[in-house]
């Protein structure tokens, strides 16, 4: 029962090495595991990634212009496994990850992808705890989509889904798992877990990343049916951003009433999302920390969405 781990990579070798280390510690026959690293960093070919492990590790270099989907799809063409495990290059798996992914996937014939819950350390900063709580909003149940950080499926299922969407810079995991959900069920389990080594730890870092992540927001909905539950993630960030912008403009021209009205309209969804996550949170983060998270998250997502629109218009006009 051969398992191929496919890991796209760009920089940050220390996290890649920790990721591979966690694969090497699996309670599984290591001779049945191969690791395919598809890197955009030339130095990867000179790195010793299999030191002190029995793992078979293959490293390939691809163009710096390839999307993460292209790296994953290329990795699949070089894999030999009956099962495919797609990991980001900053994921530390629990030792029972393969065992539980196999059990979860095989226990129900209609299941097409399984994935493990996120975990963080007790001393993690508030932002990391918030991101972990968001990731674990639904546990031990079938879900509508899965993040691409750790996905486990058969090779046959990968081909039925059609591979990852290479035209998307970000949001490729939503697109891929949404297509998978049309063919079978997705299951998010607490029986295994992972630590996201590269998780956002500061609001400034998150702000920059969310601008980047938001660029493919609208492109990711092209050619697929958008369920009602997804619409708020597309509508709310730009709506809050525009309300805040209008509030500032109204204040600048001396319209205090208008400024208060627009500010109130922005605060309604902001406080609603904050209250929901605060009640959901099991990691004991304060209400103010959650509010700060959404106060930064929504404008960043909106800026990224608008940047993606302008980029698409510019490309079409070239």
UniProtKB/TrEMBL annotation:
Record-level Gene Ontology MF annotations: hexosyltransferase activity
Claim: RNA-binding is one of the keywords in the record: no
Source organism per UniProt: Paraglaciecola mesophila
Positions of the Glycosyltransferase 2-like domain: 4-161
Keyword terms: Membrane, Transmembrane, Transmembrane helix
Cross-referenced Pfam families: Glycos_transf_2
Protein known as: Glycosyltransferase 2-like domain-containing protein
Membrane-crossing residue ranges in chain numbering: 234-267, 287-310
Recorded superkingdom: Bacteria
Entries under InterPro entries matching the protein: Glyco_trans_2-like, Nucleotide-diphossugar_trans
